[in-house]
Amino acid sequence: MPVDLPMPTRGELRADCARCVALCCVVPAFQASADFAIDKPAGRPCPNLTGELRCGIHSQLRERGFPGCTVFDCLGAGQKVTQVTFGGRDWRTDATVARDVGAVFPVMRVLHELLWYLSEALELASSGPIRGALSAALRDADALSRSDAATLVADDVEGRRRAVADLLLQASELARGPRPGRNLRGADLVGARLRRADLRKANLRGALLIGADLRGADLRGADLIGADLRGADVRGADLTGTLFLTPLQVAAARGDATTRLPPVHTPPAHWSPPLPSTAPPS
Fold first, then answer.
1. Which of 36, 121, 150, 186 is deepest in the core (most CB within 10 A)?
2. Tens place of pLDDT per residue across the chain (282 aa)
Protein backbone atom coordinates (compact mmCIF):
# COMPACT_ATOMS: atom_id res chain seq x y z
CA MET A 1 0.00 0.00 0.00
CA PRO A 2 1.27 3.55 -0.72
CA VAL A 3 2.66 5.43 2.24
CA ASP A 4 0.53 8.41 3.27
CA LEU A 5 3.20 11.08 3.70
CA PRO A 6 2.50 14.22 5.73
CA MET A 7 1.76 17.25 3.62
CA PRO A 8 4.60 19.78 3.39
CA THR A 9 4.38 23.12 5.13
CA ARG A 10 5.82 26.42 3.97
CA GLY A 11 8.45 26.17 6.70
CA GLU A 12 9.78 23.04 4.99
CA LEU A 13 9.89 24.63 1.53
CA ARG A 14 13.26 26.27 2.05
CA ALA A 15 16.37 26.07 -0.08
CA ASP A 16 19.12 23.98 1.53
CA CYS A 17 22.18 24.53 -0.64
CA ALA A 18 24.24 22.06 1.41
CA ARG A 19 21.97 19.24 0.17
CA CYS A 20 21.95 20.39 -3.45
CA VAL A 21 24.63 20.20 -6.16
CA ALA A 22 24.48 23.85 -7.28
CA LEU A 23 21.65 23.28 -9.74
CA CYS A 24 20.71 26.98 -9.72
CA CYS A 25 24.27 27.78 -10.86
CA VAL A 26 24.11 25.29 -13.73
CA VAL A 27 20.62 24.70 -15.12
CA PRO A 28 19.13 28.19 -15.74
CA ALA A 29 20.33 30.52 -18.47
CA PHE A 30 20.85 34.20 -17.83
CA GLN A 31 21.75 37.20 -19.95
CA ALA A 32 23.98 40.16 -19.22
CA SER A 33 21.72 42.76 -17.63
CA ALA A 34 21.23 44.75 -14.45
CA ASP A 35 20.77 41.39 -12.70
CA PHE A 36 23.71 39.47 -14.18
CA ALA A 37 27.11 40.71 -15.30
CA ILE A 38 27.55 38.05 -18.01
CA ASP A 39 25.72 35.75 -20.39
CA LYS A 40 25.40 32.12 -19.30
CA PRO A 41 23.76 29.44 -21.47
CA ALA A 42 21.40 26.91 -19.90
CA GLY A 43 23.17 23.83 -18.62
CA ARG A 44 26.59 25.43 -18.39
CA PRO A 45 28.10 25.98 -14.93
CA CYS A 46 28.52 29.60 -13.92
CA PRO A 47 32.23 30.57 -14.11
CA ASN A 48 31.99 31.67 -10.46
CA LEU A 49 31.12 28.13 -9.35
CA THR A 50 34.00 26.47 -7.52
CA GLY A 51 35.02 22.82 -7.57
CA GLU A 52 33.37 22.44 -4.16
CA LEU A 53 30.04 23.50 -5.73
CA ARG A 54 30.04 26.83 -3.93
CA CYS A 55 29.87 30.36 -5.30
CA GLY A 56 33.34 31.86 -5.35
CA ILE A 57 32.00 35.42 -5.03
CA HIS A 58 29.02 34.77 -2.73
CA SER A 59 29.86 37.61 -0.35
CA GLN A 60 30.35 40.06 -3.25
CA LEU A 61 27.57 39.11 -5.65
CA ARG A 62 25.92 42.52 -5.67
CA GLU A 63 29.20 44.40 -5.94
CA ARG A 64 30.34 42.16 -8.80
CA GLY A 65 27.14 42.64 -10.82
CA PHE A 66 25.09 39.56 -9.86
CA PRO A 67 22.18 40.88 -7.75
CA GLY A 68 19.90 38.41 -9.53
CA CYS A 69 21.64 35.58 -7.72
CA THR A 70 20.96 37.14 -4.33
CA VAL A 71 17.19 37.09 -4.82
CA PHE A 72 16.90 33.58 -6.26
CA ASP A 73 15.13 30.98 -4.13
CA CYS A 74 14.16 27.55 -5.42
CA LEU A 75 11.87 26.92 -2.41
CA GLY A 76 13.66 23.63 -1.82
CA ALA A 77 13.36 22.30 -5.37
CA GLY A 78 17.13 21.93 -5.71
CA GLN A 79 17.62 19.55 -2.83
CA LYS A 80 14.45 17.63 -3.81
CA VAL A 81 15.88 16.99 -7.29
CA THR A 82 19.29 16.11 -5.86
CA GLN A 83 18.26 13.95 -2.94
CA VAL A 84 14.94 12.44 -4.08
CA THR A 85 14.77 12.40 -7.88
CA PHE A 86 18.41 11.45 -8.38
CA GLY A 87 19.15 9.87 -5.00
CA GLY A 88 22.11 12.07 -4.14
CA ARG A 89 23.93 11.55 -7.43
CA ASP A 90 26.07 14.37 -8.82
CA TRP A 91 25.66 15.77 -12.34
CA ARG A 92 29.47 16.03 -12.61
CA THR A 93 30.03 12.30 -12.28
CA ASP A 94 26.75 10.73 -13.41
CA ALA A 95 25.84 10.91 -17.10
CA THR A 96 22.14 10.23 -16.44
CA VAL A 97 21.87 13.13 -14.03
CA ALA A 98 23.80 15.42 -16.38
CA ARG A 99 21.43 14.49 -19.22
CA ASP A 100 18.13 14.80 -17.34
CA VAL A 101 18.60 17.46 -14.67
CA GLY A 102 18.04 20.35 -17.07
CA ALA A 103 14.52 19.09 -17.81
CA VAL A 104 13.66 18.03 -14.25
CA PHE A 105 14.75 21.08 -12.25
CA PRO A 106 12.37 23.59 -13.94
CA VAL A 107 9.43 21.23 -13.37
CA MET A 108 10.36 20.80 -9.72
CA ARG A 109 10.62 24.55 -9.27
CA VAL A 110 7.03 24.96 -10.50
CA LEU A 111 5.84 22.15 -8.23
CA HIS A 112 7.51 23.65 -5.18
CA GLU A 113 6.02 27.05 -6.00
CA LEU A 114 2.58 25.42 -6.15
CA LEU A 115 3.27 23.61 -2.86
CA TRP A 116 4.15 26.96 -1.26
CA TYR A 117 0.94 28.61 -2.45
CA LEU A 118 -1.30 25.66 -1.62
CA SER A 119 0.22 25.30 1.84
CA GLU A 120 -0.50 28.97 2.52
CA ALA A 121 -4.05 28.70 1.21
CA LEU A 122 -4.67 25.80 3.60
CA GLU A 123 -3.42 27.92 6.52
CA LEU A 124 -6.14 30.51 5.87
CA ALA A 125 -9.12 30.09 8.16
CA SER A 126 -11.33 31.47 5.39
CA SER A 127 -10.50 28.57 3.04
CA GLY A 128 -12.93 26.17 4.67
CA PRO A 129 -15.31 25.88 1.68
CA ILE A 130 -12.49 24.75 -0.63
CA ARG A 131 -10.23 22.99 1.90
CA GLY A 132 -10.89 19.57 0.38
CA ALA A 133 -9.91 20.69 -3.12
CA LEU A 134 -6.81 22.50 -1.82
CA SER A 135 -5.71 19.43 0.15
CA ALA A 136 -6.19 17.16 -2.86
CA ALA A 137 -4.17 19.48 -5.10
CA LEU A 138 -1.41 19.71 -2.51
CA ARG A 139 -1.18 15.94 -2.04
CA ASP A 140 -1.15 15.40 -5.79
CA ALA A 141 1.63 17.95 -6.39
CA ASP A 142 3.65 16.60 -3.47
CA ALA A 143 3.34 13.01 -4.71
CA LEU A 144 4.44 14.06 -8.18
CA SER A 145 7.46 15.90 -6.73
CA ARG A 146 8.63 12.57 -5.30
CA SER A 147 8.34 10.73 -8.64
CA ASP A 148 11.13 9.67 -10.97
CA ALA A 149 12.58 11.92 -13.64
CA ALA A 150 10.56 10.46 -16.51
CA THR A 151 7.26 10.95 -14.67
CA LEU A 152 8.15 14.53 -13.76
CA VAL A 153 9.12 15.52 -17.29
CA ALA A 154 5.99 13.91 -18.76
CA ASP A 155 3.62 15.87 -16.51
CA ASP A 156 1.56 18.73 -17.91
CA VAL A 157 2.95 21.09 -15.31
CA GLU A 158 1.54 24.21 -16.96
CA GLY A 159 -1.93 22.68 -17.01
CA ARG A 160 -1.47 21.84 -13.34
CA ARG A 161 -0.43 25.43 -12.66
CA ARG A 162 -3.60 26.75 -14.33
CA ALA A 163 -5.82 24.42 -12.30
CA VAL A 164 -4.15 25.45 -9.05
CA ALA A 165 -4.39 29.13 -10.05
CA ASP A 166 -8.18 28.81 -10.13
CA LEU A 167 -8.17 27.38 -6.61
CA LEU A 168 -5.83 30.09 -5.34
CA LEU A 169 -8.06 32.79 -6.80
CA GLN A 170 -10.99 31.32 -4.89
CA ALA A 171 -8.87 31.25 -1.72
CA SER A 172 -7.93 34.89 -2.30
CA GLU A 173 -11.53 35.98 -2.78
CA LEU A 174 -12.61 34.17 0.36
CA ALA A 175 -9.76 35.71 2.38
CA ARG A 176 -10.36 39.26 1.14
CA GLY A 177 -14.06 38.92 1.85
CA PRO A 178 -17.13 40.65 0.46
CA ARG A 179 -15.46 44.08 0.67
CA PRO A 180 -12.07 43.64 -1.02
CA GLY A 181 -9.70 46.51 -1.68
CA ARG A 182 -8.68 48.08 -4.97
CA ASN A 183 -8.57 45.89 -8.07
CA LEU A 184 -5.10 46.46 -9.54
CA ARG A 185 -4.67 43.04 -11.09
CA GLY A 186 -1.98 43.15 -13.77
CA ALA A 187 -1.67 46.93 -13.43
CA ASP A 188 1.43 48.69 -14.76
CA LEU A 189 2.68 50.40 -11.60
CA VAL A 190 6.34 50.59 -12.59
CA GLY A 191 7.88 53.43 -10.59
CA ALA A 192 4.48 54.38 -9.17
CA ARG A 193 4.31 56.78 -6.23
CA LEU A 194 2.37 54.76 -3.69
CA ARG A 195 3.94 56.05 -0.51
CA ARG A 196 1.61 55.45 2.45
CA ALA A 197 -1.06 54.14 0.05
CA ASP A 198 -3.98 52.21 1.48
CA LEU A 199 -3.71 48.89 -0.36
CA ARG A 200 -5.41 46.72 2.22
CA LYS A 201 -7.02 43.65 0.65
CA ALA A 202 -6.09 44.94 -2.81
CA ASN A 203 -5.89 42.61 -5.78
CA LEU A 204 -2.30 43.07 -6.99
CA ARG A 205 -2.05 39.72 -8.76
CA GLY A 206 0.54 40.01 -11.53
CA ALA A 207 0.94 43.77 -11.01
CA LEU A 208 4.17 45.37 -12.21
CA LEU A 209 5.53 47.16 -9.15
CA ILE A 210 9.13 47.43 -10.36
CA GLY A 211 10.79 50.35 -8.63
CA ALA A 212 7.51 51.50 -7.06
CA ASP A 213 7.63 53.70 -3.97
CA LEU A 214 5.68 51.71 -1.38
CA ARG A 215 7.28 53.27 1.67
CA GLY A 216 4.85 53.16 4.56
CA ALA A 217 2.12 51.60 2.42
CA ASP A 218 -0.49 49.39 4.07
CA LEU A 219 -0.65 46.09 2.17
CA ARG A 220 -2.31 43.98 4.85
CA GLY A 221 -4.44 41.31 3.23
CA ALA A 222 -3.38 42.25 -0.31
CA ASP A 223 -3.04 39.44 -2.87
CA LEU A 224 0.50 39.62 -4.27
CA ILE A 225 0.64 36.41 -6.25
CA GLY A 226 2.85 36.96 -9.29
CA ALA A 227 3.42 40.65 -8.51
CA ASP A 228 6.82 41.90 -9.70
CA LEU A 229 8.43 43.66 -6.73
CA ARG A 230 11.92 44.08 -8.16
CA GLY A 231 13.39 47.21 -6.69
CA ALA A 232 10.11 48.22 -5.04
CA ASP A 233 10.81 50.30 -1.94
CA VAL A 234 8.91 48.68 0.93
CA ARG A 235 10.70 50.38 3.80
CA GLY A 236 8.18 50.99 6.55
CA ALA A 237 5.47 49.14 4.62
CA ASP A 238 3.12 46.72 6.36
CA LEU A 239 3.02 43.40 4.51
CA THR A 240 1.63 41.36 7.39
CA GLY A 241 -1.24 39.20 6.25
CA THR A 242 -0.42 39.58 2.57
CA LEU A 243 -1.53 36.67 0.43
CA PHE A 244 0.86 34.49 -1.57
CA LEU A 245 4.02 36.51 -0.95
CA THR A 246 7.12 34.42 -1.72
CA PRO A 247 10.72 34.68 -0.50
CA LEU A 248 11.73 35.63 -4.05
CA GLN A 249 9.45 38.67 -3.98
CA VAL A 250 10.70 39.70 -0.54
CA ALA A 251 14.33 39.42 -1.63
CA ALA A 252 13.68 41.35 -4.85
CA ALA A 253 12.20 44.32 -3.01
CA ARG A 254 14.11 47.03 -1.11
CA GLY A 255 13.29 46.89 2.56
CA ASP A 256 14.82 47.36 5.96
CA ALA A 257 14.14 46.65 9.62
CA THR A 258 11.05 48.87 9.52
CA THR A 259 9.35 46.64 6.92
CA ARG A 260 6.72 44.46 8.55
CA LEU A 261 6.64 40.96 7.08
CA PRO A 262 4.45 37.90 7.63
CA PRO A 263 5.95 35.56 10.29
CA VAL A 264 7.00 32.97 7.71
CA HIS A 265 9.40 35.47 6.10
CA THR A 266 12.70 36.83 7.36
CA PRO A 267 14.39 40.03 6.13
CA PRO A 268 17.06 39.26 3.48
CA ALA A 269 20.67 39.88 4.45
CA HIS A 270 21.06 42.53 1.74
CA TRP A 271 18.23 44.70 3.03
CA SER A 272 19.52 48.01 4.36
CA PRO A 273 19.43 49.00 8.03
CA PRO A 274 16.93 51.75 8.88
CA LEU A 275 18.17 55.29 8.42
CA PRO A 276 18.87 57.12 11.68
CA SER A 277 16.17 59.48 12.80
CA THR A 278 16.82 63.16 12.09
CA ALA A 279 14.10 64.35 14.44
CA PRO A 280 15.31 66.58 17.28
CA PRO A 281 15.40 64.94 20.71
CA SER A 282 12.27 65.46 22.76
1. 121
2. 344 567 777 778 989 999 999 999 999 999 999 899 999 999 999 999 999 999 999 989 989 999 899 888 999 999 999 999 999 999 999 999 999 999 999 999 999 999 999 999 999 999 999 999 999 999 999 999 999 999 999 999 999 999 999 999 999 999 999 999 999 999 999 999 999 999 999 999 999 999 999 999 999 999 999 999 999 999 999 999 999 999 999 999 999 999 999 999 999 988 977 555 544 444
Question: Exposed/middle/buried for 111, CB within 10 Å: 0-12, 13-18, 19+?
Answer: buried
The count of residues in the chain is 282
Alpha helical stretches, state H, 146-276: 149-154, 157-176, 247-252
